[in-house]
Amino acid sequence: MGLVENLRPAKKVPTVWWSSPDPMSLRPKWYTMAILIIGEFLFGLGDSLLIAAGIGNTPWTVLAEGISIIVENWTIGEATFFVSAAVMLLWVPIKEIPGIGTILNAIIIALTIHVMVPILPQPERFAGSILMASSGIILVGIGSSMYLTANLGPGPRDGWMTGLQRVTGVPIGRVRITLEVSVLIIGVILGGTFGFGTILFAVAIGPVVATCLAIAGRIGST
User: Fold this and answer.
1) Residue 109 is part of which domain span?
2) Helix H segments across the chain?
């Protein structure tokens, strides 16, 4: 029962011993920063694995890849940073304020993708692609749970999503689906890779992140 209880998905982001009491803090504890940075690196590594698997990217990475195809000499990592920066500009009219975690999210994830994608192997068989994509989803879940529990500001896309919900009053689930579908369609039109991996990510990422948050909550409460 203990293992089952630990793996039961969390319904919200838990507060743990490494969580910053102030999401706008510019001088967080060193261990909070360390967990934030490691989490965002793991997120970027997971996204890189999904890209290298070659069977479909996450919706936002489909958009970034499409932009990298259109803009000559841009890598997916560079396009990912551009997308994050552009989304943060959209925070201005809805009066969202970024934290240090928001800024580092844009930089670290994009930099990790920029460095890792060219050196990761590309599977020759579909089974290998599924394994790599699944590993990527798990790493994205672990990374998400780490940077979310650090509580130093949401990622650019998450902040835009919650800000739009606050301003419009539209349910958060509907806002998220609208954004994800919209960027996916634009990305596909631009030439980004949509496929089984994209669907696998869409189905699995919610439960994976929720489960990782539950585990983080258990670890952080001890």
Assistant:
1) 28-220
2) 2-7, 30-53, 59-70, 76-89, 100-116, 126-150, 156-168, 172-190, 196-220
